[in-house]
Automatic annotation (TrEMBL):
Protein name per Swiss-Prot or TrEMBL: Acetylornithine aminotransferase
GO BP field: L-arginine biosynthetic process
GO MF term set: identical protein binding; N2-acetyl-L-ornithine:2-oxoglutarate 5-aminotransferase activity; pyridoxal phosphate binding
Cofactor note: Binds 1 pyridoxal phosphate per subunit.
Modified positions (N6-(pyridoxal phosphate)lysine) in chain numbering: 254
Residues binding N(2)-acetyl-L-ornithine: 142, 282
NCBIfam families in the record: arg_catab_astC (TIGR03246), argD (TIGR00707), PRK01278.1 (NF002325), PRK05093.1 (NF003468), PRK12381.1 (NF009047)
Pathway: Amino-acid biosynthesis; L-arginine biosynthesis; N(2)-acetyl-L-ornithine from L-glutamate: step 4/4
Family: Belongs to the class-III pyridoxal-phosphate-dependent aminotransferase family. ArgD subfamily.
Location within or outside the cell: Cytoplasm
Required cofactor(s): pyridoxal 5'-phosphate
Enzymatic reactions: N(2)-acetyl-L-ornithine + 2-oxoglutarate = N-acetyl-L-glutamate 5-semialdehyde + L-glutamate
EC assignment: 2.6.1.11
Amino acid sequence: MNREPVTRELFNDVMVPNYAPGAMIPVRGEGSRLWDQQDREYVDFAGGIAVNSLGHAHPGLIGALQEQAEKLWHVSNVLTNEPALRLARTLCELTFAERVFFANSGGEANEAAFKLARRHGWTHHGPEKHEIISFTNSFHGRTLFTVSVGGQPKYLEGFEPAPGGIHHATYNDLGSVKALISKQKTCAIVVEPIQGEGGVLPAEPEFLQGLRDLCDENDALLVFDEVQTGAGRTGHLYAYEHYGVTPDILTSAKGLGGGFPVAAMLTTTAIAESLGVGTHGSTYGGNPLACAVAQKVIDTISQPEILKGVRARSDKLRKGMMAIGEKYNIFTEVRGEGLLLGCVLTEEWQGKAKDFVAAAQEQGLLILVAGGNVVRLAPSLIIPDQDIEEGLERFEKAVATLVE
Ligand SMILES: *Cc1c(COP(=O)(O)O)cnc(C)c1O
């Protein structure tokens, strides 16, 4: 192995250029703080894009991983394993679900969900019932099927031909769904309860209830993509509880593993029937290491005091961002639920969300964008008050450098 130091420049020499990572390279983390190669410290309001639900180097997660690492890493799905069975049982106990399929990423969980929806339509109604309705600006992953169901055409450009039978309606506009749905052809409606990548845009409760009703009237399945909103992010274990609308299929990833790759598709017994033996699979899905870590994540974040803490932290962070927004006249609103917040930039700052990320990094703060006009925050669900305060101070300094 070449022992020369690794630098950000090396990225350009050895990596496929599909990412544009920031200038610093983080090397370790603890809680909601990160340190780079030069031992510079950062407050983390990004949470690895809503993934590090319990921050960095959480002792409970380290313990769960180490304990499982010494026992069994992998057996494949030719055999089942204890951590996967325990985690599936927990998810069924805590949600509407009665059956679980494990995958390794959000895109894969959605791929499974969309295939199940098609297979369910095919099984019960025939091949004509295969159409999927999703929404413009939605995001469901980067596999060809999920990027086609997603509503951001730029992610599909150059990768066509896309799978057919997919229609895009307008988010929060029931009429646009009614215009596309049919009993004969529609097998599923796919929706994010809060559009994450699309700008942290929450669904209106009547909209989700309306989708539930339309699905029931048209024998279609309602699929909630909770890859970003799930695992405690909104202050509820899953956002569907907050809305009081229960889907037929729900996908979870990101925060579920707290940084270890794992994903789950949740559904009911009757719907799960359509994925019989041999119809779908994954080599790593349900891997013991991943499931042992996710078990610890779910056991921790499902505690009422943790979920209550998310709502308290949310208030503090939201108020702090709104105050900075007012002082410098940069935000029209701060929207979202729990610790998934989107600060919408004013007219003057349209398209400049990335400038805030760069300026914040200069001040020792990690934040995210959601499109060009929204600054997104998705910190650890247990971020200490002091880190919220310090992050807000650093954000204000960053804004001051931009507004000058
Ligand atoms: C991130 C995300 C995905 C894709 O997850 P990957 O793990 O990157 O495949 C899908 N849906 C939503 C809502 C997401 O936020």
